[in-house]
Design goal:
The protein has a single domain, classed as Alpha-Beta Barrel (TIM Barrel). About 40% of the residues lie in helices and about 15% in strands. It contains 10 helices and 8 strands. The structure holds 2-phosphoglycolic acid (PGA). 2-phosphoglycolic acid binds next to strand 8.
Length: about 250
Amino acid sequence: MKNFEQIIVANWKMQLSIEEAKKLARTIKNLATEKKISAKKKIVLCPDFLSLPEVAKMLKDSDLSLGAQDGFYEDIGAFTSQVSIRELKASGCEYIILGHSERRALGETNLTINLKVKAALKHGLIPIICVGETFTERQEGNKGTIIMHQVFEALQGVEVENHHQIIIAYEPVWVIGSGQAISGEEASQTAAMIRQSYVDVMEGRHTDSLGVIYGGSVDPSNINHFTKMANIRGALVGGASLKATTFVELIQNS
Ligand code: PGA
């Protein structure tokens, strides 16, 4: 991961109206300036599609970046309801969350995630690829296999170049929104496994391009359990990103 030391991504899901998203973006931006959050900590806000243009305006001339929560891999065509990654880039997005477990639960497959990763890199967006096991997969002892498979499928055939960045977010599905995060040690071990899977798929090339982050019930009191781990470069934050003071406190504690 280049250019910054840490990345904290706010996933606002479908929780806010356009007005609320605008207001939250403005307050986070102002608080981040007031608290002098270093530009070395990259803050990314991911509102829903409709709020993207308004939030983009709000973040203009700031160090904060805009991200989408998904996107479609084709550039143009008869794809009713889809929003192309190309247009997301034109709307000011620099990042895109792909393969979030809530999208996988609605039918997103490893194949479409792979196509989206390729489209994201083609259009100059940084993909934040989510991987993680369900509670049942964990109980059955399949956590490692599932995650390695997700990493491999998301990245196979992807032409990474030196200037590209790829973020993989380890999000244990059963932890998301539960209020109970896993331990920093477990997240760190899993991050190491994800990095190894990445190295395997890339056949040892472009290892500097990867940053692994953790997501799942991250809050201001536990963020440093993860970010103090050398191989975890930040967090993907849902619930705790919906209140400006909480989110900025989380960033300060990271
Ligand atoms: P959470 O969500 O922080 O509310 O657990 C994280 C996510 O879904 O990315």
